[in-house]
Design a protein that fits this description.
alpha/beta, EC 1.8.1.4, oxidoreductase, FAD/NAD(P)-binding domain, 479 residues, Enolase-like, domain 1, 25% strand, 13 helices, single chain, 5-stranded parallel beta sheet
């Protein structure tokens, strides 16, 4: 006899495990199914984000940033080092340890909130009276029955046609995070196809550790989703660091062999080029994970991209079936998945969960960090919105000078008539943390004057946010 639950969540990434926990908090009997395994075959909940995405990439970025600071900037502080070395195997082991802490933390949260966890692959079997039958296929296979189903199966890295991932030479984000695990060394030459978040972050990690990094981008513009002024500042900073970024390229044949990878491509001028590298990271986007879900068994509607079709409430084409995160429309961001997850759990419980998709922040954890929320200047121009802009450089901020990191600026965009904040864009130190103030302000429909009138601690990087708000009215105090 199958076990019955009020809610069954398929997937334990940021969308899945948060949905399960919130539903349990609301008094529902919840099961969560996830198939991720650690190296020993045990459960590793957390999805792509925890296992081969957000968390491990930040661990490597932190380690490589420490190395770069020690190698090139400690001298400015009077700190001298000799025979500086990076133990790549130890760096990777630390990253693995950070991942395991997060895996174990999620399992603890399931236990704390009385969520029943099943380690295996979840898939639809059939519709039954009052719900759906879900199969769990794993070391211990069983069948569950749920009144409400939340699909949170995430996404997978998109492969280039003719160049499948082997995770040895041609790498997805997974393989990129394991470079040097066995060799103990950084690659001498690293190629990256795609200058999005993953490409820039992984390129930065290995550039800091001595690799010659070349990034090939098919689009003619750099960071097209970001504010144009921010993108230009970022490109200038990355060029100075030694990241070689080629825009407007057309990638041709890719050959992988014992000596590495050869990429034939045409540059923006139409000239035939060849790139020879030890490793090639392909980061050209991600595709929704719906294979093996057995959606056809219950008639669950999928889109052209293989995504699950949902409405603005995350309801699918089937009654009692919901979907959140990377497997549905919208940006593939962990925090977007979490917000949808909470909203769906609350809707199931009869509450009124809400997600404002216009206020989802974006962050790139390079150095300098890049973060933004709301509209870009080019979007406002295209939409014919009258606006005012104000910016403040970190080079005029006392805390940034003390940190020794004055690259970048904070930029505010506000409505020309009402002064309501329409967008905030930050490039510079701790942009990922500073953007939160903008999110709060915009959620309460604050004006730039509101931020300009609020007392910010001195000395702090957040003063640059206040100063940028003052700049909207052309009255900065420190620049």
């Amino acid at each position: 006899m199958s076990k019955s639950f009020d809610v069954i969540v398929i997937g334990a990434g940021p969308g899945g495990y948060i949905a399960a926990i919130r539903a349990a908090q609301l008094g529902l009997n919840v099961a969560c199914i996830d198939e991720w395994k650690n190296e020993k075959g045990g459960p590793a909940p957390g999805g792509t984000c925890t296992n081969v995405g957000c968390i491990p990439s930040k661990a490597l970025l932190q380690s490589s940033e420490h190395f770069e600071q020690a190698a090139h900037h400690f001298g400015e502080h009077g700190i001298s080092l000799k025979d500086l070395k990076m133990d790549v195997k130890k760096m990777i082991a630390r990253k693995d340890g950070v991942v395991k802490q997060n895996n174990d933390g999620i399992l603890y949260l399931f236990k704390k909130n009385k969520v029943s966890f099943f380690h295996g692959k979840g898939s639809f079997v059939k519709a039954v009276d009052g719900g759906y039958e879900i199969a769990v296929t794993g070391d211990k296979s069983e069948t569950l029955t749920g009144k409400q189903i939340i699909v949170a199966t995430g996404s997978s890295a998109r492969q280039l046609p003719g160049a499948p991932f082997d995770e040895e030479n041609i790498l997805s984000n997974d393989g990129a995070l394991r470079i040097g695990k066995t060799s103990g060394a950084a690659p001498k030459k690293l190629g990256v196809i795609g200058s999005g978040v993953i490409g820039l972050e992984m390129g930065s990690v290995w550039r800091r550790l001595g690799a010659e990094v070349t990034i090939l981008e098919g689009l003619p513009t750099f960071l097209g989703a970001a504010d144009e002024q921010v993108a230009k500042e970022a490109k200038k900073a990355f060029d100075k660091q030694g990241l070689k970024i080629e825009l407007g390229v057309k990638v041709g044949e890719i050959k992988s062999g014992k000596k590495g990878v050869t990429v034939a491509y045409t540059n923006a001028k139409g000239e035939a080029q060849t790139l020879e590298v030890d490793k090639l990271i392909v980061s050209i986007g991600r595709v929704p994970n719906t294979q093996g879900l057995n959606a056809e068994a219950v008639g669950l509607k999928l889109g052209e991209r293989g995504d699950i079709v949902v409405d603005d409430q995350c309801r699918t084409s089937l009654p009692g079936v919901w979907a959140v995160g990377d497997v549905v429309r919208g940006p593939m961001l962990a925090h977007k998945a979490e917000e949808e997850a909470v909203a769906v759990a609350e809707r199931i419980a009869g509450q009124h969960g809400h997600v404002d998709f216009a206020l989802i922040p974006w962050v790139i954890y390079t150095s300098p960090e890049i973060a933004w929320v709301g509209k870009t200047e080019q979007q406002l121009k295209e939409q014919g919105v009258a606006y005012k802009a104000g910016s403040f450089p970190f080079m005029a901020n006392g805390r940034a000078r003390a940190l020794g990191d004055t690259t970048g600026f904070v930029k505010f965009l506000a409505d020309a008539k009402t002064d309501e904040i329409l967008g905030v864009h930050i490039i510079g130190p701790y942009a990922s943390e500073l953007i939160a103030e903008a999110c709060v302000a915009m959620a309460f429909r604050a004006s730039s004057e509101d931020i300009a009138r609020i007392c910010h601690a001195h000395p702090s990087l957040s003063e640059s946010t206040k100063e940028a708000a003052l700049a909207v009215d052309k009255r900065t105090l420190n620049f």
